[in-house]
Every structure is written in structure tokens, then in C-alpha cells.
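Our consortium's second objective concerns turning raw sequence data into structural hypotheses that experimental partners can test. To show how far this objective has progressed, the report includes one record in full. It was chosen at random from the queue rather than selected for favorable results. The single chain below, 298 residues long, was entered without modification.
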Amino acid sequence: METWTVETVDGGGQLEVHTFRPAKAASIPGSKAPAEPAGVVLVHGTLVTDSLYWPFARTLSVMLGRPVHSYNRRGRGRSAPQPSGYSVETEIADLLAVMEKTGSSDVVAHSYGGFVALQAARRASINKLVTYDAAVSLSGNLSSRWRPELEEAVTAGQLDHAWAHLVQGLGTAGPISYLPMGALRTLSVLSARTRLGLEMRSLLPTAVTEMRAVLDADAHLHDFMELSTPTLMLSGGWSPSYFAETGRTLAGAVPVIDFAVVPLQFHEGPLRPGKRLAARIARFLSGTRLHGELPDAT
């Protein structure tokens, strides 16, 4: 893995990038090394850093035989903080800057990252795009997921209360999402004793601004009709149903969008062990079926 930085176009600082490459083939003495194939940029979701995606990025790079570039979005790691005027436009500019600097043609994006990537594809040239549980607000379908109590709790410094509202509102934590508020607050206290739990709590303020960005960019089907990027929208078989509903709706109306369900996958599929999800994505990006791969449900 290589760690390096890309400067933001708004002068806000830099973005921390981690690059994964497949093992290089043995070179023939006296021959020139072949040009590196175009890369793939991986855009992570909310309340996490890109480090959780490293095993997935490494697996995808090996399957594709191409470099995969995973970067920390604003407010994480050594990347610049979210600016005061943060919006989806900030994220679009950052994604395009990483694509240009890395010479990447394709994008793979998860959750909030899927929202960013779809918005970017509406106004910029992306060769192929794959989203997994893209958090797209379509005709107000995500407005009920927003809880004002979340922002109020973050402002008041009541992070356990905020975490509980986030988990219940989005329903992305599997069966845990349906626990009573008191139980969720207790889980938040316990998880804060772990490195990952502590990191998630520190990112709660970014989750507030990112959720607002999704709702502010609420779109309708006609907004995607001019999309020209071949796009595969995936959803986990065990993910909250609203992700699949949005994917099916868009695929049914927009010619360049396809939709499929990846069985036995939770919302955090890219963060879990296993190769099924990576194989499904690699097949679409490469245009081939991988040996031994099973077909997906739709």
C-alpha cells in the first residue's frame, strides 16, 4: 500500500490517498514495463474512515489487475476538515480531483459515497460506476430517516444519544437498529471503549453535515435521465429495504443504470470478510464473469 496526498481544488488542503496495486508480473530483462492500467477510485461511507475498506480495496485490485485508490473524505485522517460551506459540491470536486491525479476511469462507492459518486456522474465523465447501498434521496424518500434530535444531541455533546438516533434512523446496523433507545445508548458507551467505537463517535459531527447534504440534494427521476455513465447499483440482501427500492426505481427509469441484490450481505458489506461482493463489482467493471462465480438475484 502507498500513502500519499492530493491537493483540493478549493485550497482547503489535501486529501489522504491509499493506493493498492496487484502484484507486479516478473519483468523481462531489457524490456520496458507496460503502462499501468487506469485505476479505480473507492469512495467510503459516513461515520468511518477509509482504513476499514483496505482489505476490500486490496481484493478488488487483485481481481481487476488494476490499481485501486481509496481516500479519506474531508474530516478524516490526514485529509482536510469539512469547510464551513460544505455540500455535495465539495465532495464532487474532491472525487474528481482524486480521479484526475490518479488517472482513474472507474468509481466504486458505498452508502454516502454512492450518493457522491452518482451526483458526480451527472456532471463529469466517469467510465463505469458501481454503488453499494447508495444513500440517494429520491423524491423525499429519505426525509423520514432524518432525526432533528441527532443534530441537537451532537451540538449538546450528548454523543451516546446522538449515536442511538443515527442507528435507529438509518437502520443500517442490522437487528441492532431496532433496539430501544436506552439499549442503544448503552451500546454506544460500551463501543466507545474500543478504537473503532471511539473513532465513530468523533465522526458524528461529519455525519450530521453529510446527512443534510443528502437531503439538500433531493432529486427526482428526471434529474438522472441524462446520465451517460454505465452504472450498477447494488444492495445487500440483508440491507435496509429502502436502498434496494431506490436502486430498482432508478434502474427501471434510467437506461444506463442496472440494479442487483447481492445475497447474504449487510449494509456494511464492503467492510466484512469475503470476496462475493468484490467479485460482483469486478465482473461489472471488467465486463466478464469470474470463474466459479454464482449469479446474483435482482
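The partners drew two points from this record. Residues 120 and 231 are 12 Å apart (CA to CA). Strands lie at 2-7, 14-20, 39-43, 68-71, 104-110, 128-132, 231-236, 257-262. Both points have been shared with the crystallography group to help prioritize constructs.
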